[in-house]
Amino acid sequence: MIHYNRKMLIQTLSLCPRSWKMLCLFEEYKIEYRAQQLPINSKLEFPIIDKYNSDLSYLFANLTKFAASENDAQVYGIWSSIIDCSIIPEITNPIRYERVIKPIAHREYSCLTTLRAKRIQLKQKLKEISEYLTNNQWLSGKHFSICDITLATTIACMDYLGEIQWQDQDLQHLYNWYLKIKSRPSFQVILEQKCSGINPHSNFAKIDF
After folding, report:
1. Is 161 a member of any domain?
2. Looking at residue 2, what is its pLDDT?
């Protein structure tokens, strides 16, 4: 267990997978913190830890605290490259922008062409990960880790918006994996998240649907 002498402040963004990852990590490792959700039209593009650190700089500076072994740290580097550096900026952030930022913060119409293209990309990525989980219980292969938190909180943001078609048989292994994570006590903070101006999908908070 990691102990700190004071509560760290996390400035989070609405429906932001990187913000939600930090909340879930701090809950999982029982680190005391205070969360401040910034306005939906905030100029920040990523969460801030204690005013000075981005989530990624903080994580990589403290990775040994969140990774059980050197191998776990290396595996996290791989999955972070896939999720934080590819899926989030290329797929989930554009969907978030079209579904949330444009209509609520800018009062503009979503671009259906962009949404259609990003949804196809999202479905393909999730299918690939589901195939990987066919022979692996967790993303690290052996045990629940920071890798699973990183993906689960990214998926949760899309699940909040109802962007994932869980009835698709190609996602069955991903579905089973996600349900296990949703039932963890540390994930409760994610299931309680709210975004001003948009309600969560009816399945979002359910741990079996």
Report:
1. yes
2. 42
